[in-house]
Amino acid sequence: KRYLMSAVVVLATLHPAPGREEELLAVINKLVPRVHEESGCTLYALHRDATTGSTDLVFVERYQSHEAYQAHIDGPALVELGPQLGDLLVSPVDVIVLNPVPLGNVGKGAV
To answer: CB of 55 within 8 A of CB of 1?
Structure first.
């Protein structure tokens, strides 16, 4: 059974080029406050892998609706970010868009 809710959770993984992680973080740091101000964005949090030592950076994102997520994709922050990434990444950003499947306690069963 597929559960469709209005909230959208996104995992976006960035793969920094060797030795370019700090530069990438500097570029992203300019983006984050702008995304936090976007209407419909309820979570935009950057994480690192705590187990493998990978330099990959993972955004955990949540939007109030698919429309809010689409507005984020089309918004000025991401449009301006694209050209700045250039050779800071070794491959395109991996994006997974998720719909919650809330089980158990409502407060703990969905991001």
So the answer is: no
